[in-house]
Amino acid sequence: MVWRSAYSSGVPRPLMRGVAHGIIGLMAPYLIWRVRKKPRLRLMMVATCGGCICSAFLHCVPWGQRNWEQRALTIDFIGICAGLTGHIFSWEWDLQGFYSKILAGAALLNCLLYTVVLLCKLYQEQEMLVALRGFSGMQLGLQLAMLVAAQRRMRTMPRVLASIGPPLALAYFRRFGAFDAEESGPLPVLAGVWSPHEWYHLMVASVHATQLSELHKIEAPEKEKI
């Protein structure tokens, strides 16, 4: 089998789970090349594509043993935090001012600590999905909060969307898309194909498109801004 149909717990994998991530991962070299002259946008694209590759690695590869799936899950979580860190540095690119330096430094330190904590939990053979509900989950939430703070340079309306979008998406995911969710939520789902998990990623993608568009405008040559 070269395509995953279920997780080690026996839970079926929806057909679209991880597919979009895999497509973005395959397109990564081209996407990064396209923005090669815009360093901040390129960093955000690298962070995004890296996270997508980690997620596709988890959801699409048919892991034969639970311990290997737990390792892939750990890599996926680390990829999420590293991706958020890359986004923060995309906004704080110039590191000008005390606030910028503190925010970037705190994000990097939190990401490193998050990685160490998760690797220790993996070594202790803890269940990763459960482990993320504790201290590690708070670390990931802190990273998201720092990203919202870093987006202060966006225009008013995009900044509002980028600020409230991720928390709302996470709340939706926790209620309807988590592994132990008891309801499927208000949005339509298609059994075996599309679930609340996919809706969550679609919500995040819409916010991320706004971020990429804003950075593109910031780095555009003056003649393109007219």
TrEMBL record:
Native source species: Durusdinium trenchii
Q: Which domain of life is it from?
A: Eukaryota
- Its name, as the record gives it, is Post-GPI attachment to proteins factor 3
**Can the keyword Transmembrane helix be found in this entry's annotation?**
yes
What's the source species' lineage? Answer: Eukaryota, Sar, Alveolata, Dinophyceae, Suessiales
Arranged from A to Z, the UniProt key words for this protein are: Membrane, Transmembrane, Transmembrane helix
Ranges annotated as spanning the membrane: 15-33, 45-65, 71-90, 102-124, 130-150
